[in-house]
Amino acid sequence: MDLQACIEAELERWHNPYPLQQIFQTAEPQTVVELINTFCKRELGSSIASTVFYEVSIGVVCGLQLQDGRKIVLKLLGPGESIERLRAVVRVQRYLLEQGYPCTHPICEPSELANGITMVEELDAEGEFHDAHQPEWRQKMAALLAWQLHLLRQPERIAGIDLKLFDHRLPPGVLWGKPHSNIFDFEATSRGAEWIDELARPARAILDHGAGELVLGHIDWSTKHIRYIGEQAHVIYDWDSLQLDKEPALVGHAAMTFTYIPFMPGVADSPTHEETLAFIADYEAARGKPFNQDERRTLAATMTVTMAYGARCEHSLAPMSVNTPLAVAAPSWLATGVIF
Q: Domain check: are 7 and 154 in the same one?
């Protein structure tokens, strides 16, 4: 595939030039390709031969084959990201790889490209994705998360790590931070969303003083990021999603997102309430001990806020409608979400 054609097709499909403009200060496809190719020649010693894939979300991700035969992934993030944090992410990846954990393999240190920051990894597309609604894969995801948090409970083993770089928790009293994508505008669509905020506010108050151990973990824990060979996890993607939080908060968020795999036809994005509770039970089994009552309150509060955030995003896209699946489900789910 041709990278310029991929960029043009993505712009035509979504009409959202913002991520490109943030990173490259232009959304003109030819200019973007020239900048990426220059980076590859300068930093990797080889120019682009072909494009394996091209995706846009918060940032831009390119799977590329270089002229020298290597296949790489370039993840480009905007100027709001910290190069110090991304360098710390690479240190965590290398530490986890040393422990046998199935991370992606960084090729070099994060560096600047135009107005953004670029991470470079080996492209590993070996293995299969699976539907985590199936108990076997749900249990494996819970066990993988428990193993990961166990390995990261002693961050002093990672040379030069500064945990403050990963702490994105909101200050007490703040209900919503900046949405994860520019397509969502919570302030402009606040009218009609009051019921969501009212349900989220008491849960957020619990999180302001949440129980549990503060630990580093992958905050975007969904099955779309994990490839398996046979029954074993082969590679896990998206390590710039590392975040410092209380263990029950990391697990509660994962329990709400672990089934997400938008490119697998016929698979529901979100787990049922029973599946979220089963994921937590699986995690507790892998962890070797159950959460205590205070930790379970933090779990439930995280699940409630996660559901409310999704409802807020849905509302932002359709502020005059309450008929989207998430908005319909949210009132009853949130009303009981703090009860196990």
A: no
Q: Are residues 166 and 47 in the same domain?
A: no
**Interatomic CA distance for residues 58 and 238, integer angstroms:** 12
Section 309-320 average pLDDT: 86
Q: Which domain holds residue 30?
A: 3-122
The number of beta carbons lying within 10 Å of the beta carbon of residue 117 is 24
- Whether 130 is in a domain gets the answer no
Q: Is residue 172 part of a domain?
A: yes
d(CA 145, CA 102) in angstroms, rounded, equals: 11
- Pair 92, 216: CB distance under 8 Å: yes
Same domain, 81 and 197: no
If asked whether residues 143 and 110 sit together in one domain, one would say no
Does 101 share its domain with 190?
Answer: no
Tell which of 100, 122, 144 closes a domain.
Answer: 122
pLDDT digits (tens, 9 = 90+) for 87-139: 999 999 999 999 999 999 999 999 999 999 999 999 999 999 999 999 999 99
